[in-house]
Amino acid sequence: MEWYYALAMMLGMLATLMAIGLPVAFAFFTVNLVGGLIFLGGEAGLMQLVRNAVASVKIFSLAPIPLFILMGEIMFHSGMAFRAIDAVDKVIARVPGRLSLVAVSAGTLFSTLSGSTMANTAILGSVLLPEMRKRGYHPTIAIGPILGTGGIAMLIPPSALAVLLASLAQMPIAQLLIAGIIPGLLIAALFVIYIVVRCHLNPKLAPTYDQESVSLSERLIPLFIYVVPLLTLFILVVGSILFGWATPSESAALGAVGAIIAALCYRCLSWQALRKSMMETAKVTGMALFIICASITFSQILAFSGAVDGLLELIVGWKLTPMALLIIMLCVLLFLGAFIDQMSMMLITLPFFMPLVEHAGFDVVWFGVLMLIVLEISFTTPPFGLLLFVMKGVAPPDITMRQIYVAATPFILLEILVLALIVAVPVVATWLPDLILPG
Prior knowledge:
Number of strands: 0
Strand content: under 5%
Largest sheet: none
Radius of gyration: 22 Å
Helix content: over 70%
Number of helices: 22
Structural class: mainly alpha
Number of domains: 1
Distance between the termini: 42 Å
């Protein structure tokens, strides 16, 4: 079978199964079963699928995924995250778009503690959006910051998706985690600047209101009680990697244990909250491990069918410059992000993109950060960005999907601006990991 027929068959079958609503993991397993029978030698191919599944999930480097997820779930279900948001709210003074700035600040803070984009959006949406609507905030400046900040959790460690991407693409996990810090903070800073400038130019977007007069100590004490101690978890996780005291797996374990200890100290860890956190961690981790199991065989089938080599030869034959090749890959990711989820994007593109990255001589960590930013953008890209539907679920009933789409657009453009900056100036992403974790 010619490589292009094999490629069309595999991707066409996958698209059909996903279009009829089959979960991503099962869609890939079904394609793998058919592909194994055709391209891997029938029954021997099916046995190879089983061997791949076992080998792919017994890798110790995958341990940070459930531990980072557990850390975020404990923050969410114990209520610690809500207390931190309230503390941040008290600190921010009267500035244009105050509650929107609270959303960005609190969302960035929670990103450093959880690594969960959906939890980030759900918490901010349920806590801050009703208050914003009550104060007369326009939906654009109320919903947009929550959606934009929700995705930052994918970049700033601890990020389970960054660990998954690094594992699938065989990138250094520690370097990719550290490389996301500066881009994530840069995106948050641009959000703050955009909100202040836009609300200053058009005060009707975020009407000012009288705040209860409180002393400086009343503003700062909740910050030191509910925020500063939690930031030690971020220092514990990231600092242990930065200074070489722990591997990503060990630092993730420290973070999970630290989250449990913090919840106990705040007396907010009930058996129900712990059970809920464990159950949600098991669900998300199970899905991630299914995805990893499917990815190995999917890549092998594409290789054995000749689809990868055939497509690479075709693209190399175009004699594109490395920058043109990179732009094409990013455009493909941005297009796919409007229609399919992040897991599927990684599984479909990585078997083709990583050989192209190697051929072009790109820094794999730099490319990993670019891919994480595009995956973050895809979370809020209409019409099927996952966070758009999370927001619809927690928003008041009168908020329409069209309003959510419009609110997300400026923040998507700001993220694309950061993406372009890192394409033009790679050192923005590579400086910190190269400084601290050379090689």
